[in-house]
Amino acid sequence: MVLRRYLLIGVCLGSLMAACQPESSPVSESTTSTATPTPDATIPNAPAPTITLKVPSDSPPTTPAPITVTPTPTPNPNISTPQPTTPATPTPQPSPQIISKAGNIYQNPDLGIKFEYPPDYVVQVNQPQKSVDIWQSQDYQAFKAGKFDNSAPPGNLNITVEDNLQKLPVNEWIAQNPTFDSPGNFSPKTVAGLQAVAFRSVGLLEFEHIVIPIEDGSRMIVISHPEGEEHQQAFQRVVSTLQISRK
Questions:
Q1: Residue 165 domain flag
Q2: Which of 29, 88, 122, 158 has a 20 to 30 Å separation from 168 between CA atoms?
């Protein structure tokens, strides 16, 4: 009985203690989720990194050549530069070539001719024309003194060197040359060892001519004189002694 009484007392005490405690809320299960971070849209795009690759080269490094810089002098405006002075070239004047009376010989390296002429004649060189005139001494002195200013001077021998660039035959070249009026009476002749052509022309005066082709026919030597006994001897002496330099 006593034991039963103690059990009842214990049950009562347990009920009393349970009634005195506060009512607790049931515990519910909670689900834990991990939030994923959202990138910030306000961050600007970062520039792409620059990658430099060093490629090894089998060639040895080239050493640059040294550069030499020459400074350009600056001219001083206050200093005048002296200018070279060109000496004036005198203008050649025609002049007679008078050689000894014993044997007058005339030589012209520019024209490539050399000849003899009578002692009572003089040779006048015409510049810059490629020709010479052979005068009787008295006629030349009168001509230089101006005695023939209003009239035709007396005739004289003449030697010219003319071009024949087309290398025309002698007769054709003569026909096309306006110097000769009505050429005719052609005949072959040998002068200075070369084949030549002799002929006559008729104008205000009648002339006798000899044309000698030289330098493969590209040039012509022409010897002329007025018809008549006055210059015939001088003409024959010039033609017979003529020497031509080959170029």
A1: yes
A2: 158
Residue tagged 């971070």 (tokens): 37
Question: Is 236 within the bounds of a domain?
Answer: yes
Report if pTM > 0.90. no
Domain presence at residue 107? yes
Within 8 A by CB and 6+ apart from 161, the residues are 111, 112, 113, 130, 131, 219, 220, 221, 222
| 19-69 confidence digits (pLDDT tens) | 545 554 444 443 444 444 444 444 445 455 554 444 444 545 555 555 555
Residue 195 contacts by C-beta under 8 Å, 6 or more apart in sequence? Answer: 188, 213
Count: domains in the chain: 1
Q: What is the pLDDT of residues 71-101, one digit of tens each?
A: 555 555 555 555 555 545 544 444 444 443 4
